[in-house]
Amino acid sequence: xxxxxxxxxxxxxxxxxxxxxxxxxxxxxxxxxxxxxxxxxxxxxxxxxxxxxxxxxxxxxxxxxxxxxxxxxxxxxxxxxxxxxxxxxxxxxxxxxxxxxxxxxxxxxxxxxxxxxxxxxxxxxxxxxxxxxxxxxxxxxxxxxxxxxxxxxxxxxxxxxxxxxxxxxxxxxxxxxxxxxxxxxxxxxxxxxxxxxxxxxxxxxxxxxxxxxxxxxxxxxxxxxxxxxxxxxxxxxxxxxxxxxxxxxxxxxxxxxxxxxxxxxxxxxxxxxxxxxxxxxxxxxxxxxxxxxxxxxxxxxxxxxxxxxxxxxxxxxxxxxxxxxxxxxxxxxxxxxxxxxxxxxxxxxxxxxxxxxxxxxxxxxxxx
Length: 368
Description:
Blueprint: H1 6-14, H2 31-38, H3 53-70, E1 74-77, E2 88-89, E3 95-96, E4 102-106, E5 111-114, H4 141-150, E6 155-161, H5 163-182, H6 184-207, E7 212-216, E8 220-221, E9 224-225, H7 229-249, E10 253-258, H8 266-269, E11 275-278, H9 287-294, E12 299-304, H10 306-311, H11 314-328, E13 334-338, H12 348-361
Parallel strand pairs: 1-6, 6-7, 7-10, 10-11, 11-12, 12-13
Antiparallel strand pairs: 2-3, 3-4, 4-5, 8-9
C-alpha cells in the first residue's frame, strides 16, 4: 500500500477505511515527559504557567517538537486566555481562572488542577457571573501558533471543554450534584450558556485550521455514568447535539473523550458523536466488543491502559498494544493511543514502546 502522510492516515481512519498503518496519537503528554523526550527544560515557575504568552509559546513549541520527534499523526490544541488576562491569585496559593474555577498547582506534574473549592455557594451568586468571550482578542493565538509550528506535518485537532466537566469543576462535585437535584433549571441554564460558548469556539477552532473537534471531560467512573441516565437524556445529550451539529455544519467530525465505564451510554452516543476516546479498559470497557457493535458508527481512539503504562513491564505493554490493534484496527476507524494521556506516573519507556509497536504491527494489510 502507498505510504500516506499523517493527515491522510487520520482521515482514512475517520472515514472507516484502512490506511497504510494505524494512526497514532496522544491527547496530551505531561510536561515531565515532554522535557525528558526532548532533553529540554521549560523555563519559568508555577506562576508563569497561566496567562503568560511567552510561556504558552514555549510550551507549544516543546509539545510540537516532541510530537514531531515521535512521528505522531495528530496533535491537539485549544484556545488561549485573552490578551493581557491574568489569573486572580488567592492567599492560599490557589488561583482563579476565567471560568471561576479554583485551581491548585500539582508540583509533580507541574500543572494547575481544578477542583480546589467553589467560589460561590448559591446559584444566585452565579447570576452575575461574566462568561468568557469566545472571540476575545488573543483567544486564537495559541492554536494559530501551533498550526504554524506543525507546518502540515500532522493533523491539528481542536479541543473544547465538555459542559458537564466544566460546570463540575466550577461548582465542585458537591454543589453540582446538590443543585442538579434542588435547582435543575439553574443547572440547565448553565449548560446552555457553556454550550453556546462552545458552539462559537468550534467555529473559531475551525477558522484557525483545526480539522477535528475533541470534547474533553469525564462523564463516567469505574462503575458507570456519574449521574442518572435521565439527566443525560434531558440535559447532557441535547446540549451535546448542538455542539456536534455546529461541528458538522463546519464540515468536521466530533470526538468525545470520557474515562470510566461508558458502556451504558454507547447506544445513544453512537447516534450523536462521530467517535469516542478513551474506552477505558481499567473500567472494564473492551474495545473489541465496542468495535463489533459500533465499529461502523464510531471511530475508536484508544485504548492501551494508562494504569498498565504506569505499572506493567515493557513486554506486557508490547502484548497489550498488539492486542488493541488486533481488536480495533481492522477496517479502519481506529486511532491508537493510551486510554487517557501520558500522565507523569506513566513509565516513559512503556509509552514509547506503545508507539513503536503501533508503527511495527499496525501495518495494513493486517498481520493478525
